[in-house]
Amino acid sequence: MIQLLASCLIGLGTGLMAGTFGVGGGIVATPLLKVFMGFSAQVAIGTTLALILPTSLTGAINYYRQNLIDYKLALKLALPSVLAATGGAALTGSVSAKQLMLSFSGLIILAALDLLFGYSDGLKARRAKKAVSLTNESSQAESESRSDREIYISPTLSRALPVGLLAGFLSGFFGVGGGFIMIPIFLALFNMPLKMALGTSLLTVSLISIPGIITHAWLGHVRFDTVAMLVCGAVPGSYLGSKIAIMVKDKLLKKGFGLLMLLMAGQMIYSELQM
């Protein structure tokens, strides 16, 4: 009962932070499962990855309804990602827990630095500015969507291949969606509209998480009972987080969470080095 309650609270906290700060649950849930649930690094990663599938797929549905998904690109990314995610998940079994968590701490630091200094936000802002400058026929939001669709061309398989391999490996090895890698690439290299980048990323994340989940489950790294409780907590948490985000300045939220993530990564590194 205590473990189930803890799982629900972790899901609530993960959803709250995801809804408030707009970040993926993998960065948040994995260290919490390890620290508070006592899971091994491999089980924490596998269980978190299983949580990513329903949450990302649910988010993708909203973008599907607005026709803001590049299905061709999602499939091009998913094909190489399947192999990379499977390989990344299988590799976790041959890496020590210390090496895995130290590597994951490095990933958290990179994500935290992006939140603190806004590298991906800079790309999004330039993308939105370019879209608005191309047309003045409608409101800013409509201008961005309309002009972007006029100039955007779906990337070829050769351009999508390395992105899919990288995102797939990160998904399988670290139990993260890979969206924080894909979205900046979509904006900077593929000239993709912002909203379409978000929708396509969510669909791709849900697709590439599947082979990683299967591999982790086969290795015994997924606690499906915990996943169910995480989902129950993550849904209301995400809703509440989005309400909070509306009332608080985005810049302040991101910097605060960036600092929190740096502290979390520092604590993880310290704990692993002391063992």
From TrEMBL:
- What subcellular locations does the record give? Cell membrane; Membrane
Q: Does the keyword Membrane apply?
A: yes
Main location per the UniProt record: membrane
**How is the protein disposed in the membrane?**
Multi-pass membrane protein
According to the lineage, what is the superkingdom?
Bacteria
Transmembrane annotation, as ranges = 35-61, 73-94, 100-120, 163-190, 196-219
Q: Which GO terms describe its cellular component?
A: plasma membrane
A Pfam family assignment: TauE
Record keywords: Cell membrane, Membrane, Transmembrane, Transmembrane helix
Query: Does the record bear Transmembrane helix in its keywords?
Result: yes
Q: Which family does it belong to?
A: Belongs to the 4-toluene sulfonate uptake permease (TSUP) (TC 2.A.102) family.
Mind telling me what this protein is named?
Probable membrane transporter protein
Organism this protein belongs to: Candidatus Obscuribacter phosphatis
